[in-house]
């Protein structure tokens, strides 16, 4: 999912301090993708590439290990020049193995790029479904519960639109969660929140006024 992007949008609304009511909802993208066959297939492909590259790296270190053992066994028979050549070859092989390992499994390495490539169609499909549900339910903002950039200390199930997105994707929705989701009657639905001039959220439900005796 677009981790952190929705959170930035939320902060921008808060900074503006708009008093316009914002209808909010959230989804759990991690749960949604876990139910998608396309996601499972992409994940299996990622694992295949990871296993292949891991084997390539292991083969490189196995070759280095053989060279080291051969050198130790023949060291007494080698001249100084031959020793230097053997050690240089071993050192070069070790450097190549480290560089290859970093190129594959390092920051934004080959595995990262391959995963991004294989997951892109899944991500785009989920985002389109979220956009469609947001339009249907007239949501101004949708948060991702699974996003690392959003800390959700408490979530009311009636603001959860995960099952609606799953239905849009043709997946089996969690009926227990669906029963807690908002209905579409005029006087129901996710409770709207307002941003007061200070930029903080406040509920539309006012506290009852205490009547004088």
UniProtKB/TrEMBL annotation:
Pfam (any one): OmpH
One term of GO molecular function: unfolded protein binding
Alphabetic keyword roster: Signal
Ranges for region Disordered: 174-213
GO cellular component: cytosol
Family according to the record: Belongs to the Skp family.
Protein's name in the database: OmpH family outer membrane protein
Organism from which the protein derives: Larkinella knui
Lineage of producing organism: Bacteria, Pseudomonadati, Bacteroidota, Cytophagia, Cytophagales
């Amino acid at each position: 999912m677009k981790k952190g992007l929705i959170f930035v949008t939320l902060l921008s609304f808060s900074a503006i301090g708009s008093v316009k009511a914002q209808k909010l909802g959230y989804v759990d993208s991690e749960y949604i993708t876990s139910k998608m066959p396309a996601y499972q297939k992409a994940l299996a492909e990622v694992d295949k590439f990871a296993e292949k590259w891991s084997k390539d790296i292991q083969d490189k270190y196995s070759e280095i290990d053989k060279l080291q053992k051969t050198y130790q066994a023949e060291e007494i028979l080698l001249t100084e020049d031959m020793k230097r050549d053997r050690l240089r070859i071993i050192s070069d092989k070790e450097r190549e193995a480290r560089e290859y390992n970093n190129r594959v499994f390092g920051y934004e390495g080959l595995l990262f790029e391959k995963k991004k490539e294989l997951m892109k169609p899944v991500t785009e499909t989920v985002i389109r479904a979220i956009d469609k549900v947001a339009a249907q339910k007239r949501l101004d903002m949708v948060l991702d519960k699974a996003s690392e950039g959003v800390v959700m200390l408490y979530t009311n199930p009636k603001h959860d639109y995960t099952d609606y997105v799953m239905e849009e994707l043709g997946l089996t929705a969690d009926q227990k969660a669906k029963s807690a989701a908002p209905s579409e009657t005029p006087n129901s639905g996710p409770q709207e929140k307002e941003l007061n001039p200070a930029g903080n959220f406040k509920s539309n439900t006012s506290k009852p006024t205490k009547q004088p005796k």
